[in-house]
Automatic annotation (TrEMBL):
An MF annotation (GO) of this entry: structural constituent of nuclear pore
Gene Ontology CC annotations of this record: nuclear membrane; nuclear pore outer ring
Functional summary from the UniProt entry: Functions as a component of the nuclear pore complex (NPC).
Species name: Stegodyphus mimosarum (African social velvet spider)
Subunit structure, interactors included: Component of the nuclear pore complex (NPC).
Protein known as: Nuclear pore complex protein Nup85
Keyword Nucleus: yes
Family, as annotated: Belongs to the nucleoporin Nup85 family.
Length: 319
């Protein structure tokens, strides 16, 4: 048709394109040409500037809304739609198509991220839809969960970020992966999980007396400020680090502040007092008399606590 057009009337006016295309469509016969096919109907409607017909026919394609979305977008950016429709109606129609296409993409196992990108170009309820789609994606692996978390953070979906991080924290704790759980707590800032991790680390240390399990806590930065208990664990790791570097004065000062803070579980106070013994026995004076008195007071409290536990145990046995 284009060849015939340029041969017969190379200077044709754009307003005459529709009539010429219709005449060609009606008069030219060609073996194997099915004039009722959808593509030709759309081309003819486009030449006739029948935009609404173009859009209606485009929606008839069984391609998951791909063609309808992109032809509508081209016509919108070319200012062909707003000339014939009110702007709000045009925008709503365009977004309706984008949302349908995004819905198709979001149901695909590997194209769902592209669906999110399409929704970024919608103005009406786009964020709510994105959040709904993301929270329905199964968190099958760490990598996938981190990818979803990144996309949620990018779009400032704080509630979803916390939900994903809490789910993954719970999974990691259930599997005994405390280091992994801590990385998720850094995202969620959840005090409950932070306290649970701190308690588990302390219990593990009481049982094994192995500081190596605390390696990740040495560089956790602001994450340890999520809860008081996690802060305590982080500072306790810092004490061991200073002690191993022969920074006895600094380590002693930090240990004393931890003992005085009251953040440690009662059964952990005695362990910290045992940590203080090598410093008390050091050739150089490290603790002042006042600081030594504080340690003695802590020791008295520990002894009193153990006596109370023993009395409680005896009372329960008698009952």
């Amino acid at each position: 048709m284009i060849s015939v057009l340029f041969y017969t009337d190379p200077c044709i006016n754009i307003s005459s394109l529709g009539d010429t295309a219709r005449a060609y469509y009606n008069n030219v016969a060609c073996n194997g040409w099915n004039k009722s096919n959808l593509v030709d109907s759309i081309i003819l409607a486009a030449f006739e500037f029948d935009i609404m017909n173009v859009l209606n026919l485009a929606c008839s394609f069984n391609d998951g809304w791909w063609f309808a979305v992109h032809i509508t977008d081209l016509l919108t950016h070319g200012d062909y739609i707003d000339l014939r429709m009110q702007q709000n109606s045009s925008q709503n129609y365009r977004e309706f198509l984008i949302k349908n296409y995004a819905d198709t993409l979001m149901s695909h196992s590997s194209l769902w991220q592209i669906g999110l990108d399409y929704l970024d170009h919608c103005q009406i309820s786009a964020r709510a839809l994105q959040e709904i789609y993301l929270e329905r994606i199964p968190l099958q692996t760490e990598a996938k969960a981190r990818k979803i978390l990144f996309l949620a953070k990018k779009r400032n979906m704080d509630n979803l970020v916390k939900t994903i991080a809490n789910v993954m924290t719970s999974k990691a704790i259930a599997n005994g992966k405390l280091e992994t759980a801590l990385t998720w707590v850094a995202h969620s800032k959840d005090v409950h999980f932070a306290d649970e991790l701190a308690n588990r680390w302390l219990r593990e240390y009481v049982e094994r007396r192995n500081i190596e399990g605390f390696e990740i806590l040495k560089d956790m930065g602001s994450c340890m400020l999520v809860s008081d208990k996690l802060t305590f664990v982080g500072k306790y790791c810092e004490f061991h680090k200073l002690y191993s570097e022969n920074e006895y004065k600094l380590s002693a000062s930090l240990l004393l502040s931890l003992i005085s803070s009251g953040l440690a579980p009662p059964n952990f106070q005695m362990i910290m007092l045992l940590d203080a013994l090598p410093l008390l026995e050091a050739p150089d004076l490290i603790f002042s008399s006042k600081e030594t008195s504080q340690l003695m007071k802590c020791l008295e409290d520990c002894v009193l606590y153990k006596e109370q536990l023993a009395e409680l145990s005896d009372y329960q046995d008698k009952e």
